[in-house]
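Sat 14:20. Reprocessing the chain from the morning session after the first attempt stalled halfway. Input below, unchanged.
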Amino acid sequence: MNGPEWLSGGSASGSEQLTRPLRVLIVDDSPEDAETFSTYLRGDPRRPRQCETLPLGELALERMLGDLPDCVLLDYSLPDMTGLEWLEQARPGCAVVMLTGLGDEAVAVAAMKAGAQDYLVKGRLSAETLRRALDGAVERYELQRRLAQANARTASVLASVTDAFMALDATFHVQYLNAAAETLTRRRAGSPPNPPLAPLLGASLWEVFPWLESHELGEQLRGAQRERFVVRLETQLSPLDGWYEVRIYPADDGLTVYFSDVSERRQAQALSLRASERLERLHRAGVALNAARSLAEVTACIVRQAAAVFGAVGGTLALQHLSEPVLQISDTFGVSDEEVRAWPLLPLAAPFPLCDAVRSREPVLLGTREEATLWYPRLFDSGEPHGHQAWAAVPLLRGDQVLGSLGLMFGTPQPFESDERTLMLAYAELGAQALARAQIFEAERELRASLERRVEARTAELRQSNRELEQFASVASHDLREPLRTISSYAQLLAGRYGPELDDRGVRYLNFILDGTGRLHRLIEDLLALSRVGTHGSTFSLTDTGALLDNTLKLLGTAIEESGARVSTQALPQVTADATQLGQLFQNLIANALKFRRAGVAPQVQVGAAREGAYWRFTVADNGLGIAPEHAEQVFHLFQRLHHREEYPGNGIGLSVCQKIVVRHGGRIGVDSLPGQGSTFWFTLPATPASLTVTGEAEPRG
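Finished this time. Tokens:
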């Protein structure tokens, strides 16, 4: 942006210069301070000023993208950034005065270095001080801008002079050359140091530089002269010791040729390209190392990726032994079997690069065969090293732990510059990380295998135990039923034949026997039913739960009639299930609804089903006693009862059987209930493609 017009140095008079309003952007989050500064600046009758106020640095940065103000009055402490951060991001093309309440000289110096023209403390400001500071900042900025322009022009001129150029006539004779061209031409082959300039002036270019006849530059010179077109090319001029950018401008009377030495740039580009290629190879190696999991995969990957990253023709990975001071060869490439057999284990004290790298925790670099022979003569104990001309050994460090070292062999001498050393350390770090991950992976795999073996063994034990328990329950129940039947039969005979002769106590005792044998018989039958859920179940098949419920209600017809219950059903689906066990499930849940009813209240039972994702959710709801929420899980435990047997008979097994049936079918079971408000027992069954239809709604029963 150009400076303010009243400082432009034009022909306008001083009074005209002062009539142009000075545009000021105030960046301050304090409305009071901003208003005070605006009042100070607008209240000067000698010079008009326009003030704009913004509270945030981000807003001011956006504002600077448009028409720039003449000056920015910048608060050092903004809510979203400091004044120094704002200057760094904005790099404003106008004057800046920093304002703060700190009065810190270090901040003032930092503000000036960041581009501010002045620095003021808020608490010491007066209107006149602010006006003078503002005007002075604008003037200093304009002077700095003009000085920068002058310096830029000077630099441009100097830069143009640094190029070597010469003027050639139509016959390619040298008519003029500057000092840079004079220096350049002194490099021509066969010239003595500092030759006189006279022989080149007026001489033919082809005579001075005969090699141009066969060089592409010679063709371009003739083409530019013949076709009258501008030529620009970069070419290597070996006789002039480097790469040059050459620009050829044709004219009516000859050519003007400019030479710029770009050897350093080309060398830097070559180095940059080489570094980029190496970083790309390092990245690919890192990806490969990350993909390796087992220790064998990682060790093989480390030595083989080294060939791609460094161009090595051989490599050896030696890992430190866990308990002994030796290195163990883990993997190699480009190394003979004889060499590996010669040194399968390397004592850490042995005079080898791999060992020295571990001991010193620093790379060992041997750039030539002579250097290797001098420092490590035992490298050649196993015979001729297969044409290897350079060696390197890099420690694999993981924090303070040395995991081992990586040895590399090269087919040509290596300079091993600093960037090469840095690259080797970076690769070694990747290798160490991969080794650490592999060790963790191996430990986890071994732990998983151990756990799987233990789980399999424990599962087998549990299966065997379950089989034995089920067999025991079946055998015990069968063996118990026979004497129980005998006791019950004879107790009934006693009651029929001798009952009238017994006194009240004898009758009561006999009733105890009959009641106990009845309860024991029911308990045995319930235990047998529980044990048979997982062992005596039928094959799953497509089952019409509506028809199944109808059969269940017929079996419960007497209990429904005696209780005065009313059972209603909704449309029920078809599911793939064990029909016998599913009928037992419905029977147990509806029987419980009839049994646990409130006194004087006829049972109301509703059976329904609804689709929930991949499952059917069945519900059996009643208006009975209800269950406290803290007992909602307890009721499914074996032998768990919430009421005395005298009030509600039973063994506490029925709901356990229900739960076992539902689990066998791949579902869940639960209850939603509150005391005195009835219960809703629910269970889920998988909805297979063959079980998506529902049956018609059944008639209410009762």
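The first strand starts at residue 22 and ends at 27.
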